[in-house]
Amino acid sequence: MELSDFLASVERRALKHALYAVRDEAAALDIVQEAMLKLTEKYHAQPPGELPPLFQRILQNTIHDHFRRSKIRAWWTPLASMFQSQDESDDYDILESAPPDNSGSNASETPYNTLNQKQIFSEIEKALEKLPARQREAFLLRYWEEMDVAETAAIMGCSQGSVKTHCSRAVHSLSVLLAARGITL
Amino acid sequence: MNEFDMAQRIIRQLDEGISQLGPEQAGRLYALRQKALAQVPMAQQPLRFDVLASAHVHHPHGRSAFHPRGHQGTAFLRMMGVTLLMALTIYMLGDWSGDSDDDNGQLDAKLLSSEISPQTFAQKDFGAWLQETR
Q: What is the pLDDT of residue A103?
């Protein structure tokens, strides 16, 4: 697979990865561009098989760099830090703030078949944005990018056990959040 | 439903969602990709000329004379052309400078003869002197 084919195959997911993390389309596009430029500039000669984990690591690092830069900017502008502080917190449990699961009681009001594809996609995206960053990162790398646990752990810079925990919590949180919106997949 | 099945169902929805990405976002991503690919050194970009493709010589490691090291073959040919041109130029200049000795002699003689009076030519030793100075 050529480099251009590889980039074409991952660019949409990469944009979504960045967008779920930073929640700003312009910033997400900048992140994808930076990741693509780094890959083509430094690793263009790498074997095709090594490109996916390399690109994901670059992408995740670029997202983290974005938050670091935002943090520095926020230090100068205290007002901005008020909006930024929640973004990188990994310890909170999204289920604590999730609305109660009423899917059993009002399933007929918001049945799955009344939602079109676009709405379901939109709800899943919203649920993903609500996940703690590390859970979302683990879930997307492990399941969307189809990395194995070891690769995901290497990209995230954590243990394989942490990856499994993050993934498990992410899937559980997504199930609850989607069920609360009347979506059962 | 177990974790893996649930994850797969979510991913299926995500895949369908990104396949319907708007043309504006898709266009931007295309532009980003092209910009990134422009960073790749020429050596990594395949030459797409039919003539070169027909002359494709495979390298044991999958590389060839024209791809992805194609620019080296082209550069070599270009360098050879420049060298040949320089050699030809030097040869022609050398040949021309050889002829110019005679031309300069004729010119000197002409200038000399135009400044010397006819009486001088009539003097006895002038012929010998003229031969010596040439």
A: 47
- Residue segments in chain A with a per-residue pLDDT below the cut of 70: 1, 78-115
Asked if A171 reaches chain B (Cβ–Cβ under 8 Å), the answer is yes
The one-letter amino acid at B62: G
The three-state secondary structure class of A34 is helix
Q: Does B6 touch chain A (CB under 8 A)?
A: yes
State how far the Cα of A165 lies from the Cα of A153, in Å rounded to an integer: 11
Assign residue A146 a region: left if phi > 0, alpha if psi is -120 to 50, beta otherwise?
left
Residue segments in chain B with a per-residue pLDDT below the cut of 70: 42-76, 95-105, 107-116, 118, 121, 133-134
Residue A185 Cα to chain centre, angstroms: 20
Q: Chain B residue with minimal CA distance to A127?
A: B10
Determine what percent of chain A is predicted with pLDDT higher than 70: 79
Tens digit of each residue's pLDDT (9 = 90 or more) over A139-168: 999 999 999 999 999 999 999 999 999 999
Residue A160: is it exposed, middle or buried by C-beta count within 10 angstroms (0-12/13-18/19+)? middle
User: Is 0.90 exceeded by the ipTM?
Assistant: no
Q: Does B33 touch chain A (CB under 8 A)?
A: yes
Q: Catalogue all structural domains in chain A, each as residue range(s) with its CATH number.
A: 3-84 (1.10.1740), 94-180 (1.10.10.10)
Please report, for chain A, how many H helices and E strands are present, in that order. Answer: 8, 0
Q: Give how far the C-alpha of residue B99 lies from the chain's centroid of Cα atoms, to the nearest Å.
A: 33
Taking CA atoms, B56 is separated from A4, A5, B42, B61, in Å, by 21, 22, 17, 14
Of A124, A126, A132, nearest in space to A169 by CA: A132
